[in-house]
Amino acid sequence: MSPPDTVRLGGGEVRGLRLDGHLSFRGIPYAAPPVGERRWRAPAPVVPWSGVRDATTPGPDAPQPTRSFAHVTSTDEDCLTLDVTVPDTPTTGRPVLVWLHGGGGTNGTATRDAGRLATTGDVVVVTPRFRLGVLACFGHPGLADGGTFGLQDQQAALRWVRREITRFGGDPANVTLAGESYGALMVAAHLVAPASAGLFHRAILQSAFAVLAPTPAHTLIPGVPALPPRWTPADELDRLGAATAAEHGWTAPGGDPHAALARLRRVPVADLLQASDAFIRPAFGGHVLPESPASALPAGRFHRVPVLLGATRDEARFFVAVFADLVGNPVTARDYPRLLAEAFGDAADEVAARYPPARFATPGLAWARVCTDRAWAWPTWQLGRALAEHTDTWCYEFADPDAPPPVPLPGLPTGAQHAAELAYQFDVPGGPPLSAAQRGFAERVNRYWTAFAAHGDPAHPDLPDWPGLRTGHVQSLAPDRIGGADYAADHRLDFWARLS
């Protein structure tokens, strides 16, 4: 017997869609729409509905501008919905995996088919939508909880899981919070946020960026200056918000802050999105996130749950390709020493000696390797080792050299770039196809992930052993080989430790 495709929730009934091997329930509200006077406020309880709500199509994505790397645009603030994917067998007590999407903090979508992940490991997958950019991380004098609205949305989704997931056969006492890129950054915030305690029991961070330390100029995106850790002091955010609002003419400088907020809540969302890039760093210093994760995590001040984290082998190829090559401004032999000097100052010659462009097919690939090692591999290692001091931690490197790129990059050797692993975990409409070998590999990777979700350890009897990070082990994941990687040597971590 199959589970029902109609489920009664606290807010009303929903009807999902039966697909090949799983059921999909989409666009389920987990909080009231954050519109009008509810803009920049904590999420409110769901507004109940009558009758059976259609849950066969996704809800609107959070408001976001169009990007070259994301084919999603939206101006609909009624975005606090989630999707639930359930294997099509009548079992209770399944592990639950809550997935937070990436997108840099301004963009992203939860609209992915999680059937592959759900059925491979017999788990319930929940993918929430949450506020982004200026609607998530805006701050202003007089605004309570500024800079934390996206984080609070995710907490509301986790509370919804605790209340409702048994109705889908899930176990609310066995919840894994997972995320990729910006989603992984938010997982790091939840490890520290007081109100997130007890809402999840394991954590997965895929390609977390700048959690603990600053990032040198150009090493995230060519042309972007040095970046601090991805956390903003609340008072600094308030000043930025007031200055931005005045600069755009949304408020008068120096006026009453409460009158200014009333005006800001009436600004069309499309206009607000012009400022989204300035508001992607969650704020700390208030009750939602009292302390910066950059300080709290190394000190052991976080919720002690098992952690699985890692990165892709060629992370930065994505950013060099999208933000340099594809816009007609590739990294050239003349650019390379300038980028090194602006990123590393007096150490530029040392970096050049270890990454001579003559060893790479193009200067862009040389720069991508520098950026991958310094901005991704070294911070991942730092974060993993910090967490492993206090809790069980496993580390991986996704290393399929032929992974299909997340966006079309014709003629560029993309490798295992940023976000490449998502095609192995989810089916995306119109997304890149996998070969037969890659589909088999995807099943093995997903068995590791779902074993971790079930037991807090990725060990699986049918897969190669995966020792914890305390032993120094990093698991390389590729179609032709799964096993230990010489991560420190491959990414010159001793060198970067000395320069950092």
UniProtKB/TrEMBL annotation:
Annotated ranges, domain Carboxylesterase type B: 6-477
InterPro entries: AB_hydrolase_fold, CarbesteraseB, Type-B_Carboxylest/Lipase
Pfam families: COesterase (PF00135)
PANTHER family xref list: CARBOXYLESTERASE (PTHR11559)
Protein name as catalogued: Para-nitrobenzyl esterase
